[in-house]
């Protein structure tokens, strides 16, 4: 059996479109795969971004492309934010590029510890700052 | 609601996607997590042990069938309803989240 990018993407699209559940899709990294087909069924697109230049620039390109393809709600999620300098940099960048920042997830050793233990952050340390912020992100998304 | 999580490789995209799926399930939502990046880390982030995560079978591409309508137009359709596919090929993970893995692209035949 040969799987091409096209079949895998068609499969993903049909499964997400037809599901009655809330779906969370971990998309391919980067933006080469973005097309009307793969993004049409997204009610919300999260663009995860780290507070450094290359990551911010990639996020801005993904954001612009998703909007161009008609995704209704495109949100930046800042991740691994270490301090107020990081936070300010992300906030200013998002403002300048007209990106909506929905969540600032702090840099968190608990994520590295969970990874080392081969466990889910939600099981390893559900009260850690990053997991707590992702819970708040979920609440915000349900209100959209 | 259909949520798509994108980002540069290494941004923590998969960790956010998995943790968000678990968070939404804890809030009472029926959640289907979809791995479109053939990344066993999504399963781990959802609470599946590593050895098990590496053994998860992807949804077979053969579930997608080509149909031709009366006008002769070809289209791809699922051979089973999406909910049945989730039941049959889905993996139950933490907080009741069901995971579907899309599988790797076979590069020998990739187009």
What labels describe this entry?
heterodimer; A: 144 residues; 3-stranded parallel beta sheet; 7 helices; globular; B: 111 residues; 3-stranded mixed beta sheet; two-stranded antiparallel ribbon; 6 strands; 24% strand
Could you walk me through the main structural features you see in this protein, from its secondary elements to its overall organization?
The complex is a heterodimer of chains A (144) and B (111). Chain A has 144 residues and is α/β, with parallel strands linked by helices. Chain A has a domain at 43-107. Helix content of chain A is 52%, strand content 19%. Chain A is built from 7 helices and 4 strands, in the order αβαβαβαβααα. In chain A, strands 2-3-4 form a 3-stranded parallel beta sheet, sandwiched between helices. In chain A, strand 3, helix 4 (84-96) and strand 4 form a beta-alpha-beta unit. Chain A is globular and about 40 Å long. The model of chain A has no long low-confidence stretch (mean pLDDT 92). Chain B is built from 4 helices and 6 strands. The mean pLDDT of chain B is 90. Helices cover 30% and strands 24% of the residues of chain B. Chain B has 111 residues and is of the alpha+beta class. Chain B has helices spanning 13-26, 40-46, 50-53, 82-89, and strands spanning 2-7, 31-35, 64-68, 74-78, 91-92, 98-101. Chain B has a 3-stranded mixed beta sheet with strand order 2-6-5, sandwiched between helices. In chain B, strands 3-4 form a two-stranded antiparallel ribbon. Chain B has a single domain (13-106), classed as 3-Layer(aba) Sandwich (Rossmann fold), CATH 3.40.50. Chain B starts with a strand and ends in a 10-residue tail after the last strand. The interface between A and B is large, with 69 and 70 residues.
| Number of helical segments with 4 or more residues of chain A | 7
CATH topology of chain B: Rossmann fold
The secondary structure category of chain B is alpha+beta
The number of distinct β-strands of chain A equals: 4
Strand order of the largest sheet of chain A: 2-3-4
H and E string of chain A: HEHEHEHEHHH
Number of domains of chain B: 1
**Distance between termini of chain A?**
41 Å
How many DSSP helices of chain B? 4
Major sheet details of chain A: 3 strands, parallel
The proportion of strand residues of chain B reads: 15-25%
Radius of gyration of chain B over all CA atoms, rounded: 16 Å
Q: Give the CATH H-level superfamily of chain B.
A: P-loop containing nucleotide triphosphate hydrolases
Helix content of chain B: 25-40%
The major beta sheet of chain B can be summarized as: 3 strands, mixed
In N-to-C order, the SSE pattern of chain B is EHEHHEEHEE
Give the uncertain stretches of chain B in residue-range form. Answer: none
Oligomer state of the chains in this structure: heterodimer
Give the CATH class of chain B.
Answer: Alpha Beta
Net shape of chain B:
globular
Largest interface: A-B, 69 and 70 residues
